[in-house]
Batch of 2 targets.
Target 1
Amino acid sequence: MRFLPSLFLIFVLVPLPCFAWQGTVVKVADGDTLVVQVNDGQRVRIRLYGIDCPEGKQPFGPQATETAGVLAFGASIEVDPIKRDRYNRLVAIVYLPNGSTLEDSLLDAGLAWVFTRY
């Protein structure tokens, strides 16, 4: 019985992981960073989970950004949150309308690499 109150506090006070939610991509900052608008009008900056793309001025950076834009800009997507990064971006898996992930699509196109830090 001594442990019951502490278990109660753990289950009540520790927030559960966020559940997947939907939104519309309103900006592609670069190949691995998006801005998604939620139904209430709030905008959320998202860092794609598990991949890294070249930056804009690096070789293939513009192609990565353009491809992410073609695949996701204006699309209604599903966001599966993982965590927050040091820049307070939401790190998440992004599901495209066809059911594939944006991460896998960029990897398949050769415009991203697996990056376990994010």
Target 2
Amino acid sequence: MGYNFKKYGKDLVVENTAIIKRPNLVEVGNHVCIDVGVYLATESVIGDYVHIAPYTCIIGGAKSKLIMEDFSGVAAGSKIICGTDDFTKGMLNPQIPNQYKESKYDTVTFEKYSCVGVNCVVMPGVTLGEGSVVGAGSVITKDTKPWTVYVGSPAKEVGERDKSKIIEYGKILKNGTIWK
């Protein structure tokens, strides 16, 4: 694999074009795929049965964090912004010394069963509630409610998900009925 992760489980696939800047700050569970062209530059805790799809960009630096709980996912081309420069104060970009800029470091959390669609943007500090999903091309600036569907820019609530089958299937997978 070539990465010196802080911790990792079984059935882990990290495609060879993925770039993980700080693998020593990354914990990965079981049955995880970090796909082609993924760029990951934050501290991360990734649960079981997680997929980070092709060309996803996860930024914010070592002081920011991504948490992806079990059965969560990010679709292709999405941007997860865990930290950023404060655009209202100081200069901008990572090459500027810290005394001349203001930075915001935060955590983005995907609770169990939550996912974002293709080409979504998730802003710093957002928590995607359990089972919430966000449609393609959406921008998520606020926390989402559990088991709710969101679309748009900024993302707005448009419906609800039926959680009964999803939770049932999750229990089957976690108990090892499918994977041994």
